[in-house]
């Protein structure tokens, strides 16, 4: 039995295949956010296992849904991301920290 959050068009795609999807729409925001977090873990695990870039599309789609659920626009998120990157940097230099002494 498949019990998980899916993208909006999945029920129609299942129907087009001659099968009948049994689903509900999650109304409770807290439950929706909890399910999105589970979905994020699922999608990250799929990427880590497959190493396929297309799986990152699913990760980003879940991140977008989480932002929307939290009432944050993509523009605001990008501003925060750039602000944090200006302080902490990115990953361009590929620095691997082995230890901190002292």
Report a brief summary of the structure.
With 102 residues, the protein is an all-alpha fold. It has helices at 10-16, 29-50, 53-69, 74-88. The protein starts with 9 loop residues before the first helix and ends in a 14-residue tail after the last helix.
Task: Write up this protein.
This protein has 4 helices and no strands. α2 runs antiparallel to α3 (53-69). It is mostly helical and 102 residues long. The relative contact order is 0.08.
Give the helix/strand layout.
Layout: H1 10-16, H2 29-50, H3 53-69, H4 74-88
Which descriptors would you attach to this protein?
elongated; 102 residues; mainly alpha
Number of DSSP helices?
4
Task: Indicate the percent of residues in helices.
Answer: 55-70%
Tell me the Rg in angstroms: 18 Å
- Report the span from N to C terminus: 53 Å
Strand portion: under 5%
String of helices and strands:
HHHH
Low-pLDDT parts are none
| Tally of DSSP β-strands | 0
Principal-axis shape equals elongated
Q: What is the SS-derived class?
A: mainly alpha
Q: How is the quaternary structure best described?
A: single chain
Q: Mean of the pLDDT scores?
A: 97
Largest sheet: none
